[in-house]
Amino acid sequence: DAGITQSPRHKVTETGTPVTLRCHQTENHRYMYWYRQDPGHGLRLIHYSYGVKDTDKGEVSDGYSVSRSKTEDFLLTLESATSSQTSVYFCAISESGQGKSSPLHFGNGTRLTVT
Amino acid sequence: DQQVKQNSPSLSVQEGRISILNCDYTNSMFDYFLWYKKYPAEGPTFLISISSIKDKNEDGRFTVFLNKSAKHLSLHIVPSQPGDSAVYFCAASRLNTNAGKSTFGDGTTLTVKP
């Protein structure tokens, strides 16, 4: 298994509170991603990073921010959690870059419930 | 507009038979396709991929077929085993961009009955 650790694995929080999810990798891969999985929607990309301090938005980035100060860590922050952000969040890493292709390796997910 | 569609939410097959999972896409710029398998409480794991220069890729019991003119791909599992019971996601991306920016289908839940 690719060395990807997500923390926490489960979290319950109240509407309006800030939440930070952490993804840690030991593979030294350049690319890191945050996806959310919801019933009937598959996996949707929130934000991704192509290097330290280099990040960009995915298709469902509203209400989320990210930071990557080290190669191994990629943080996802919900500034003010809403019930629509109740979901399972997956971090993924990839070796690929421009002109290349390689699959994603996923962590085991964080189940977030916003009450 | 959903660019990658898996029209069958679920599929049930008997052990030893063939499982065929289907996926359609609308964006003709996609040129790299992947299948992932997901067990409950775990992250998806990569299964098999195919680039648009091929129409078939095989890896053991798993074969992916690509029909570019129909914008359709399928995953064949032969023979199916109970351990194959999982959710299968189809994903599509573009080779000249970061391949991690994949667009996923909604998934098909495969149940293989002993």
In short:
The complex is a heterodimer of chains A (about 120) and B (about 110). With about 120 residues, chain A is mainly β.
Task: Please give a structural write-up.
The complex is a heterodimer of chains A (115) and B (114). Chain A is mainly beta and 115 residues long. Chain A has one domain (4-114): Immunoglobulin-like (Sandwich), CATH 2.60.40.10. Chain A has no helices and eleven strands. Chain A has strands at 4-7, 10-13, 19-25, 31-38, 42-51, 54-57, 64-70, 73-78, 87-94, 105-106, 110-114. In chain A, a hairpin with a 2-residue loop joins strand 5 and strand 6. In chain B, the strands form two sheets. In chain B, strands 2, 4, 5, 9, 10 and 11 form a six-stranded mixed sheet that branches. A five-stranded antiparallel sheet of chain B has the order 1-3-8-7-6, with no helix packed on it. Chain B has strands at residues 4-5, 10-14, 19-25, 32-38, 45-51, 56-59, 62-67, 72-77, 86-93, 103-104, 108-113. Chain B has a single domain (4-113), classed as Immunoglobulin-like (Sandwich), CATH 2.60.40. Chain B has 114 residues and is mainly beta. In chain B, strand 6 (56-59) and strand 7 (62-67) form a beta hairpin. In chain B, 0% of the residues lie in helices and 53% in strands. Classes of the chains: A mainly beta (115), B mainly beta (114). The A-B interface holds A 4, 31, 33, 35, 40-45, 48, 50, 58, 90, 92, 94, 96-109 and B 4, 6, 32, 34, 36, 41-46, 49, 51, 89, 91, 93, 95-102, 104-107.
Name the features.
A: 115 residues; Immunoglobulin-like; B: 114 residues; mainly beta; five-stranded antiparallel beta sheet
**Count of alpha and pi helical runs of chain B:** 0
Oligomeric status of the shown chains?
heterodimer
Q: At the first level of CATH, what is the class of chain A?
A: Mainly Beta
Instruction: Give the % helix of chain B.
Output: under 10%
Spans of chain B with pLDDT under 50 lasting ≥5 residues? none
CATH topology of chain B: Immunoglobulin-like
Strand content of chain A: over 45%
Which homologous superfamily in CATH is the superfamily of chain A?
A: Immunoglobulins
Number of discrete domains of chain A: 1
Helices and strands of chain B, in order, run as EEEEEEEEEEE
Report the top-level CATH class of chain B: Mainly Beta
Tell me the number of strands of chain A.
Answer: 11
**Mind describing the biggest β-sheet of chain A?**
7 strands, mixed
If classified by CATH, what would the architecture of chain A be? Sandwich
Distance between the termini of chain B: 38 Å
Rg estimate of chain B, integer Å: 13 Å
